[in-house]
Amino acid sequence: MTNSRRRSLPAVLALALLAPLAGIGVDVGRAEPAAAYPSTHIDVVGKGFGHGRGMGQYGSLGYALQGWNHHDILQHYYGNTYAGSTPDDTIRVRLDPALPDMIVTSAQPFTVGLVHFQGGQAARIRQGGDPLFIDVAPSCAGPWSPVGSTSGITDVAPSDPNQGDDRDRMLLVCTPSGSRFYRGVVRAQMEGSTFRAINLVPMESYLRGVVPRESPAFWGSLGGGRGMEALRAQAVAARSYAWADKASNSGRGRFPGVADTCNTESCQVFGGVEMQGTTLREEANTDVAVATTAGQVRRMSNHAFARTEFSSSTGGHSAGGTFPAVPDGGDRPCPGEGCNPYHRWSTRIAVADIETRFNLGTLLGIRINSRNGLGDFGGRIRSMTLVFTGGQVLRDNDSEIRSALGGTGAGIRSDWFAVVDAPEPPGIASFPYHVVARDGAVFSFGGASYHGSTKELGIPTPIRDMAEGADGGYWLMGEDAEVYGFGAPWYGSMRGQPLTSPVVGLAATATGRGYWEVAGDGGIFTFGDAGFYGSTGALRLNRPVVGMSPHPSGNGYWLVAGDGGIFSFGDVAFHGSTGDLRLNQPVFAMAATPSGNGYWLVASDGGIFTFGDAGYHGSLPERGIGETAVALVASPSGEGYLIVTREGRVHGFGDASPGGGPRTYGHPEPTVGAARPL
Predict the structure, then answer these.
(1) Rounded Cα gap, residues 204 and 182, in angstroms
(2) CB 3.0-4.6 Å disulfide test: which of 32, 70, 312, 656 passes with 233?
(3) Could you give the CA distance from residue 637 to residue 543 in angstroms, rounded to a whole number?
(4) Which SS3 state, helix, strand or coil, does residue 588 take?
(5) What CATH number did the domain enclosing 481 receive?
């Protein structure tokens, strides 16, 4: 039953394949004028609020209401950290915005450098470089009289450092936008040519002004008090983040020589003790959360403080990065106690606003180049291009992606969104396809459906290959021969079975209701409606089998070895091989033509060999591309193909477009496979 026929190519064809010919190209015809965006507005649906890295605050609340304690919550979101502790210390907080003068008063006596002020008086420190100039007035409103000068770094200190919760013993910093009380010392200092106010305050006191600005204090009363665990988790995350800031730049802080951290969203929001004349103040629930977790931090495996990033809402799955990406079951849609109004959101944006913002002419479309493969829509956007008549705008980090369509002001709350019924701008993928990386991350392009990944599930087994099932689902095969179904039924695997050679490939049947696993010795293992038509398991091969391709009829298949030797089984014909040729690089994969009357072989350097009715449309060496091919995906027409490389790029040939290619989806793990839905 085994058919291992090999034969040489005709001399002329062999020369054409081994030596690229000058002038070979594809006639794509004359392009029609691109159409403008077909609507006056863009409808967007999305998930989550913020960058999604680390802890989601709404998710933390949801878990707390389910009965989790703050240690469980923190371990879930910061899975590669451990619980630690550290004593209290002073932190230097840069107060933004910068102002031309710093005006301070207190009900108790205080000093500015060596100058003493009476309780109720106000001091103004004016920018002058070094020295700084000091004025006095009966109140923050003036009138001012000069009283001296001081060095370029000057501390304003209360006479009684034991301020506690007594506002009369605190310093009141007056600004045009309002006056705010602070514990500790307020320092006046130049940062380059900018005049800064710096609050030097004990870490635990600082956190009392941070936690209620980051998580609503009333959360602690939800669930009969279970919500306090979310506030405790916030206190520990805020403490760890602040300590990481303080320890940065070899202990010189985030702003070396000036401050450890700042008071805005660029660091953590810090509001001091209280805004004079308002109800914005430290809260009892958050004070308890800080006090009952005093000194608790998260540390990395090297014992450094973890920079425990957090955001309002992950939308149901954290984004990954420094901390492992995890499902966020605590982040729940409304209604319900502790629900998240940003779990799923929608917005509408005027096309004219985008055209005005970029001034590149008429908007043609929005191309989503890549996503992180985690959750709905294929996950968070990692690269996006806005296509205009006057040029293209690439955005490839979370803040730029959010701001490209107007940011939060336009209702874009995260980089996890999809544009509803968006037209395909020039260069969009010509057919749907999936790509899988070694860590199990799946990327969906050209409208292919996303159903999940082993990376999303936290399965550590490296992935070797993928195949497409019926109804848009797919399977991933691990290096241990396990098969994982996503939107496709699981029919079994060879995991745990004795194999004489490791599995190297996975291929779906024509119906999408079954699959074959193939081993390096050519052993064939069938599952679902896959039939067995023979194998090379009993043969001595010159080179190991590297892949297989089923016949479109489902009644047979070809196996290909690393030297390009072809073995045909069942109702399939042998159309040729490279078994007698000397190759620059070994063959890595093959793909059958839609008719089943031919096939392509691709070498690891991206060289293409055609047999039967398979047409030649180009190769990576012909284009001077030095990447490693890992998969070949034929277009539905058979008049082109995609070459997918280990480096995370997809190159289109013939009528196969990767979508503005070559497409780069920027995943850190190597690509191992790709497939086109049935």
Answers:
(1) 13
(2) 70
(3) 32
(4) strand
(5) 2.130.10.10
pLDDT over threshold 80, residue 501: yes
The tokens 């990447």 sit on which residue? 627
User: HEC states along 348-390?
Assistant: EEEHHHHHHHHCCCCEEEEEEEEECCCCHHHCCEEEEEEEECC
Q: Break the chain down into helix, strand, coil percent, rounded to 5.
A: 15, 35, 50
Residue with tokens 């863009």: 42
Arithmetic mean of pLDDT, 672-676: 92
Question: Does the pLDDT of residue 21 top 70, yes or no?
Answer: no
Rounded to whole angstroms, the Cα distance separating 337 from 357 reads 40
Give CA 581 to chain center in angstroms. 44
Domain boundary among the residues 368, 396, 419 is at: 419
- Cβ atoms of 566 and 579 within 8 Å: the answer is yes
Using the structure block, give the residue that is written with the tokens 């940003």: 342
Under DSSP, is residue 456 helix (H, G, I), strand (E, B) or coil? helix
Helices (H) and strands (E) in the chain, counts: 9, 43
For residue 100, say if its preceding peptide bond is cis, omega within 30 degrees of 0.
no
The distance in angstroms from the start CA to the end CA of the chain is 29
CA distance 405 to 135: 47
Cβ atoms of 445 and 433 within 8 Å: the answer is yes
Question: Would the pTM of this model clear 0.90, i.e. be above it?
Answer: no
pLDDT confidence band for 452 (50 / 70 / 90):
confident
Residues 591 and 651 in one domain: yes
Amino acid at 178: G
CA neighbor of 81 nearest in space, from 266, 200, 240, 227: 240
Residue 648 domain boundaries: 11-23+427-675
268, 241 contact by CB (below 8 A): yes
Burial 559-596 (b: 16+ CB within 10 A, else e): bbbbbbbbbbbbebebbbbbbeeebeebbbbbbbbeeb
Coil, helix or strand at residue 195: strand
Give the other-Cβ count within 10 Å of 143's Cβ: 9
- Residue 271 · residue 280 · CB < 8 Å: yes
- By CB atoms closer than 10 A (0-12, 13-18, 19+), residue 117 is buried
Distance of CA 676 to the CA centre of its chain: 24
**Residue 588 corresponds to which tokens in the numbers above?**
């890595």
What span, in angstroms and rounded, lies between the C-alpha atoms of 547 and 600? 12
DSSP state of 343: S
**For the chain, how big is the Rg over CA atoms in Å?**
32
Cis peptide before 425 (omega within 30 of 0): no
Q: What's the rounded Cα separation, in Å, for the pair 367 and 386? A: 6
Instruction: State how far the Cα of 410 lies from the Cα of 44, in Å rounded to an integer.
Output: 10
* Whether residue 451 is found in the same domain as residue 512: yes
Contacts of 122 (CB under 8 A, 6+ apart): 103, 104, 105, 136, 137, 138, 139, 140, 142, 174
Residue position matching structure tokens 């929608």: 346
Map residue 132 onto helix, strand or coil: strand
Cβ proximity of 147 and 126 under 8 Å: no
Residue 612 · residue 601 · CB < 8 Å: no
Label residue 281 by pLDDT band (50, 70, 90).
Answer: low
Name every residue whose Cβ is closer than 8 Å to that of residue 397 and which is 6 or more positions away in sequence: none
Question: Is the confidence at residue 660, as pLDDT, over 70?
Answer: no
438 and 519 share one domain: yes
Residue with structure tokens 């994969």?
589
- What would the two tokens of residue 525 be? 């293992």
Select from 415, 412, 361 the least CA-distant residue to 386: 361
**Which amino acid is it at 487?**
G
Shared domain for 434 and 507, answered yes or no, is: yes
Question: In this structure, are residues 130 and 109 in contact, taking their beta carbons and an 8 Å threshold?
Answer: no
Residue type, 413: R
Give the number of residues written for the chain.
678
